[in-house]
Write a sequence for this structure.
């Protein structure tokens, strides 16, 4: 199985490469193939050029894992919507690790896992759960959509 990592990069220290690389290392250590956008190198590449390269790589993957902070990233939101639209399974990394047998296996087999990475993921889990709870409390008739009545949803599955 090949996994695509999606998350915030622009405006973060070192483009958030440390988090991307740590997650990629953990996943590879237990046998997954990973497309890691932090490993893409373009000479003087623009945001648009990086997105085009990353999306090409994403299309060769089997699922998308959304890293902490993805909701605030323009690029990760594009990737999330595209994955949804083409039927690719997608899930936040936190939810995948916490609630799936596959995620539990990764945690069990990837020792030692970076303490910093786990702390970041655990701190983000509370934020994601709070956002989800707020979204559900604001929903009308069971719909917590993507705005403007477009029928889209920020929920993720896979």
């Amino acid at each position: 199985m090949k996994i695509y990592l999606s998350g915030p990069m622009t405006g973060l220290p070192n483009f958030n490469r440390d988090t991307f690389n740590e997650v990629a290392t953990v996943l590879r250590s237990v046998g997954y193939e990973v497309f890691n956008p932090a490993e893409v190198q373009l000479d003087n590449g623009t945001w648009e050029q990086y997105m085009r390269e990353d999306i090409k790589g994403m299309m060769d993957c089997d699922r998308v894992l959304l890293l902490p902070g993805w909701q605030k990233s323009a690029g990760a939101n594009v990737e999330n919507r595209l994955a949804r639209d083409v039927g690719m399974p997608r899930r936040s990394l936190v939810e995948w690790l916490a609630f799936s047998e596959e995620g539990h296996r990764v945690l069990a087999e990837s020792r030692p896992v970076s303490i910093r990475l786990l702390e970041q993921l655990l701190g983000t889990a509370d934020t994601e759960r709070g956002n989800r709870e707020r979204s559900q409390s604001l929903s009308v008739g069971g719909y917590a959509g993507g705005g403007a009545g477009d029928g889209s949803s920020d929920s993720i599955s896979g």
